[in-house]
Specification:
By secondary structure, this protein is of the alpha/beta class. 54% of the residues lie in helices and 8% in strands. It is elongated and about 100 Å long. The C terminus is likely disordered.
């Protein structure tokens, strides 16, 4: 049976009425509008209303946008998927207007904020809008209940959680603005908000269709993500007594990672479980292969939190241990320079599983750095990377011995040879790998001591691509074809920091060393460039010798000469 979707336009008097009882679900972020947004709403309303005395019912209606709800036909309970910020700010505005209009109108305004309970029937007030549990009582006490704004003034300097501070600041700012208007203007504004402002309400009985609608309507970008939907489903399956505890744990984890990174984490979790290239949405594949709602508390405790911690450690290069922490974090720095993120799922999975085994971690991440670098240098495509890392994830999950020669963590002999061939070719033309490769080499040549915090680092030729006709370069390289065979090779490349005059590229060797490859201090921050500065001439034999030496350094760094690929002791290089 197809999902029924209902959409209609309502004035505010039909929004804040018995037909709708709005609630903000746990998965929604806290109220986030700041004074700027609240003031913009008020300014728009006042500008639209104007200064004339035109009867309110003759003024064109003002469109406030749309809201998306999960709501079944005939029921008043309405879960807000999109529209929390507007509904909350409108409630704040009505509460503030209640403070600046005559008492008779103020009492009438209250019915749009809550349905008054009955002493006779022993029923409590029913509030038109209920915020998330953390903010619910604050919102009722200081915004929705009569006299709340007066109490709120007393808390103007109090330190509050961000969402409550936004509520307070917006309410007090709107109050300050409205107090500058005449009573007549405040009454007209009240009438206009209640009867002349419209919202389009789109409702559907399930989350999936609500999310699809939201995605279509919301062209400013998705504020609601797959993690929000999963949060709703997962937290909703936890016993009511534990929901707040796990909701707080979820939100603390999201805050620690940041919203975007937290969403990426679920893509990596999907890969850890699925072990294959993504074919459908992250949301669908997490539901299908991870099944977090089956045992939601276990998922949060044993999957989400450990993988989030591992992801944060890798991103921040901040693994902590009494052993090998510095070396492991150095490998994280190297891996974070890889031009794809496909290595992350096995990295997260292994660190989550072996967090308290630093010896294993050091060996694993030395080998993962080698593998990821090797695949990048070979320009392995996404399908090749997916197959390799999927197999590696299977070995990690099954606890297989990753030191075996046939381990997917190790480069094959053919792969080692392919890497050497690419490094031996015209490396400068490999624009996607040349800087990474030279920085890794430079770190190795410096004994692992190099730290690159420079704002701009480039790969430069020593023998220029287009030397001047009267230059020393042509004496060393008279034949153009021979010269072109050397110019883009590894042995003819160096690292340069900062911005240099491009014309200086063609200086003769001695002048170029002094004016192009060094800074004001007369030295270079790069080990491989310093080698060049200490060389008296730049001839074909010098380039060939340097080429061989640098290739041998790469062979040592990534163990590219190993016939039987058994891991060596893990030393940072």
């Amino acid at each position: 049976m197809p999902t029924r979707i209902h959409g209609a336009e309502y004035p505010i008097e039909k929004i804040f009425c018995d037909d709708f009882v709005f609630s903000i679900p746990l998965y929604q972020r806290p109220y986030a509008w700041e004074i700027e947004q609240a003031e913009a709403l008020l300014d728009d309303l006042l500008d639209f209303l104007g200064d004339s005395n035109t009867p309110i019912d003759e003024i064109s209606p003002y469109f406030l946008g749309s809201i998306v709800l999960i709501k079944t036909d005939g029921a008043s309970q309405s879960e807000v998927v999109d529209g929390q910020q507007r509904l909350t700010t409108l409630t704040i505005l009505l509460s503030v207007l209640r403070e600046v209009v005559p008492e008779k109108i103020a009492k009438e305004l209250t019915k749009y904020i809550y349905e008054e309970g009955s002493w006779v029937r022993n029923t409590p007030n029913r509030y038109r809008l209920t915020l998330r549990e953390r903010d619910e009582k604050f919102f009722r006490d200081y915004i929705q209940d009569e006299g709340g704004i007066s109490k709120l003034i007393e808390k103007k300097d109090a330190i509050l959680p961000d969402s409550q501070a936004h509520i307070r600041d917006n309410a007090l700012h709107l109050l300050k603005r409205l107090q500058k208007l005449s009573e007549h203007q405040c009454i007209r504004l009240t009438q206009f908000v209640i009867t002349g402002c419209l919202l389009v309400v789109v409702s559907t009985p399930d989350m999936d269709s609500a999310y699809r609608i939201f995605s279509v309507l919301n062209d400013r970008g998705l504020d609601l993500s797959h993690t929000d939907i999963l949060k709703s489903e997962i937290i909703g399956k936890i016993s009511p007594g534990q929901q707040e505890q796990y909701n707080r744990l979820w939100e603390d984890t999201e805050v620690r990672l940041g919203r975007g990174t937290f969403q990426d984490l679920f893509s990596h979790i999907r890969m850890i479980y699925r072990k294959a290239k993504q074919k459908d949405s992250v949301l669908k594949e997490v539901r299908l292969y991870v099944e977090p709602s089956k045992n939601p508390a276990y998922f949060i405790d044993e999957v989400l939190c450990p993988t989030a911690q591992a992801y944060a450690d890798i991103q921040d290069c901040y693994y902590e241990s009494n052993q090998h922490a510095e070396a492991i974090n150095t490998y994280f720095k190297y891996l974070n320079r890889i031009d794809n993120a496909d290595w992350l799922p096995p990295a997260i999975a292994y660190l989550s599983k072996h967090r308290h085994q630093p010896d294993k971690l050091l060996t694993f991440f030395k080998d993962l750095d080698r593998l990821a670098s090797g695949l990048m240098i070979q320009r392995a495509d996404i399908n090749q990377r997916m197959r390799r890392y999927s197999t590696l994830l299977t070995w990690i999950e099954e606890g297989q011995d990753l030191s075996q020669p046939d381990s997917p963590l190790h480069l094959t002999a053919d792969e080692c040879q392919a890497i050497i061939q690419r490094l031996n070719g015209p490396l400068y033309l490999e624009t996607k790998i040349r800087l990474y490769v030279l920085l890794r080499l430079d770190t190795y040549l410096s004994g692992g001591e190099a730290v690159y915090t420079l704002p701009r680092i480039t790969v430069e030729h020593i023998l220029p691509q287009t030397p001047r006709q009267d230059s020393q370069w042509l004496a060393w390289f008279p034949d153009e074809e021979t010269r072109q065979g050397y110019v883009h090779r590894l042995g003819n490349l160096a690292l340069l920091s900062g911005y240099k005059n491009s014309s200086a590229q063609n200086y003769d060797f001695e002048t170029k060393k002094k004016k192009y490859f060094t800074g004001k201090s007369g030295v270079s921050p790069f080990a491989m460039t310093t080698q060049v500065l200490n060389t008296p001439e730049w001839t074909p034999k010098v380039i060939e010798k340097r080429q061989d030496e640098l290739i041998n350094s790469f062979k040592e760094l990534w163990r590219l000469d190993e016939a039987v690929l058994v891991p060596q002791p893990a030393l940072v290089g």
